[in-house]
Amino acid sequence: MVIQPELLQTYIDASHDRNAWYSNPNLTIHSPFVEAIAPPILGILICLGELAQHHPIRIVSIRAHFLRPLQLEKIYQIHLAFESQEHLITMKDGGVAALEVRVRIDNMLPDLDIQHQHGFNYTCRPEPSLKLLHSIGLKDHFPISQLASLLWMGYRTGMINPGQRGFVSQFHLDFASGGKGFGANMEVLEERFDERTDRIEQWGNGFGVTSFYIESLLRPEPLEVDWDAARKSSKNAEEWAKKRIVITDALRPTGVGFASVAGLAGAEVVLNYRIGISKALDFERDLQHQGVQAQRIQADLANSKITWRMASELSSGPPIDLLILDSNPLVMGANLLDQGGDDWIQSISDSTRSIYQALKALIPCMAKGGQITLLSTEHLSSPSPGISHYLAAKAAQEALIQACSTEHPNLVFSVIRMPLSQATAAELPFEAANADENERWAGTALKQLGQIANRPGFHLLRVG
User: Fold this and answer.
1) I want to staple 240 with a disulfide (CB 3.0 to 4.6 A). Which of 12, 58, 267, 364 is the partner?
2) pTM above the 0.85 mark?
3) Which CATH number fits domain 5-218: 3.40.50.970, 3.10.129.10, 3.40.50.1820, 3.30.70.3280?
């Protein structure tokens, strides 16, 4: 069995799962893998297709264990066995197991009695979904609603959590029914992140789904800084010497660029981050080794109590001269009519909440004439299909900044619309471009911010 690019594209079209690891062929250059990565759910569907060659299947439960990432255009052998009332399907690479799938089947499982899109919070595309089933041998042998639930799992892990940050290691899915609807209504009830093991766990259920569990392992993310480029770019940031700069979500590529360049220019930098304590410690030490006065504060800005606690800690020091706000909504990669209404609204709420909480808690900590800038995107000027919630969230954030400028006329407010290439890189949890590009861009942005100092009001900046 070989996972061909054509089959991958059919999966992407059906599921809306455009994870950059397998939808962007250039990304593997910057990964530990030479070959392109295949979606984990696609591997499971291939295994089920092998099982369905013998008889129609309605799944009661499925347990999948990924021992290594699947790769495109690699030859795999698929082995079937039956033990302890379960079908065991193993996908092997040269005799070494890459994926193990355990399946319980009950063809008397009742039909799902919901088939209309308005009842779903996730909808797969009908035509490519049928094409996918046909390509892997599942056509007429597998309930469409169970396919939709599996594709939701792929979409959830590929685009939302962990997304580009990691890989699925195992999942469990228990069905109560199976039917004809091209959609699912799934709810995540609990999420847990273990920083010691870099492991994310998610639990939930759904209509026709008794329960599901997903375990993902985060990929180690080296934080790279081109200090020579940062030192060169710091000449554009001399305006910020001896100033205090707070950067939210500071472990993203843009945040790293701002902290490095401003710090080398003589600014005190405060690094806010939500997760990644070991990486934050390393970056703080690197900055201090370069002679930068740096401080880190772990805080989830979507949480009101934690944000106010961060504000209290900051208020014990000098006032903030520059607050850089970065909040990147997850890009679902689905057209408006293909998204569930609740998910669309929730994604906007989640991404806007952290900006709102930060403004409310940190404006009182600002220096007289201080600056607050929001990192936004030129996608608002040049929209693309499939990211309607992302554009709506960014527009709401920009409007919030502009409104605050009228309520606090002694402060300088600005929005920086990053060019499409820079914004796209910033939306990934790791950088696919060269590190020196972050430092160069940050130096240019800090220079423009310096030019609007002492000019209260609202400013829209475009930094190329």
Assistant:
1) 267
2) no
3) 3.10.129.10
